[in-house]
Write a structure and sequence with these properties.
Elements (H helix, E strand, L loop, with lengths): L2 E6 L5 H6 L9 H9 L4 E4 L9 H9 L6 E5 L33 H20 L3 E7 L8 H13 L5 E4 L10 H11 L3 E5 L16 E5 L5 H14 L5 E6 L6 H13 L16
Parallel strand pairs: 1-8, 2-3, 3-4, 4-5, 5-6, 6-7, 7-8
């Protein structure tokens, strides 16, 4: 039975701060991270999708969290094919434009340097043993096809030697018999698949293709809904050594729902086992 680590997708989201979950005395980013890390073993970092953080910032994250704590870090959006604002790119690499910047707007040298700086920003977490996985969230418009498959795998390889997990959001990756094909593609390259609760019909594919397994819960769930997910997670944990669960509930509820889910999982896993088994990839 693998370990299940549950956390929120962010500790500094505006809606979370506005929700009142943090005590008033924890009114700085550092203070909030320390308070959060006393209660959860894992957190997602989404701010890295919008800009590569300074090394000093990441050093502070590592310094203010316990030795066992892990960060799952989302890659900078430009690296996964999204358009970004020019000011999101370091000034010395920024093209001369006021329009949103695409991958192809930068030459190969600039892209290599962006990857180098992204890796450099992760070094403090790596050195502290606190980097969980790098999350690659590809654009919704990236449809399945030979070029797209090559892009996904090439981007994942750029993240090595770190553990990497991929989120594919275009329905073509899962339509018909393509779900199994997609999962086998990732598994063959030791790339993780991110299971998301808002996935396509007939429902989310609850499976892992590499270590750690990774699930993102983005919807508002009732107690009954969280109980169902607890059963899914319990079943999936039998397939992996470690399972990361990032809760991204709307309205600043992520830590509350993460706590409720943790309670469900820690009750000796006494929830009736009615979940369907994970989809086999073999």
């Amino acid at each position: 039975m693998g370990r299940i680590l549950v956390g929120a997708s962010s500790w500094a989201d505006r809606s979370l701060i506005a929700s009142g979950w943090y005590p008033r005395e924890h009114n700085t980013t550092a203070g909030r991270l320390g308070y959060y890390a006393e209660r959860f073993p894992l957190v997602g970092v989404d701010t890295t999708a919008y800009a590569i953080p300074a090394v000093e910032t990441v050093e502070a994250w590592a310094a203010r969290t316990p030795s066992h704590f892990l960060f799952d870090v989302t890659a900078f959006n430009l690296l996964t094919g999204h358009r970004v604002r020019p000011d999101a790119i370091p000034a010395d690499l920024r093209p001369d434009t006021t329009d949103r910047v695409r991958h192809r707007d930068l030459d190969k040298g600039a892209m290599r340097e962006l990857w180098r700086r992204f890796h450099e920003s992760l070094d403090p977490l790596v050195d502290a043993g606190k980097l969980g996985a790098v999350l690659l969230r590809f654009p919704e418009w990236l449809a399945r096809g030979d070029a797209a498959r090559d892009r996904v795998l090439a981007t994942a390889r750029e993240c090595r030697p770190h553990r990497v997990a991929v989120e594919l959001r275009h329905p073509s990756w899962y339509e018909g018999g393509h779900a199994l094909e997609t999962l086998r593609l990732l598994q063959a390259d030791d790339v993780g698949y991110v299971c998301v609760d808002e996935s396509f019909e007939p429902g989310p594919v609850v499976v892992a293709t590499a270590e750690p397994g990774l699930v993102r819960l983005t919807r508002a769930h009732t107690d009954a809904g969280l109980a169902r997910w607890a059963r899914h997670l319990d079943a999936l944990a039998k397939e992996v050594d470690t399972l990361h669960v990032l809760v991204d509930s709307p309205g600043g509820r992520a830590p509350l729902d993460a706590g409720r889910l943790t309670d469900l999982l820690s009750r000796g896993r006494r929830v009736p086992a009615q979940a369907s088994a994970p989809v086999p990839v073999r």
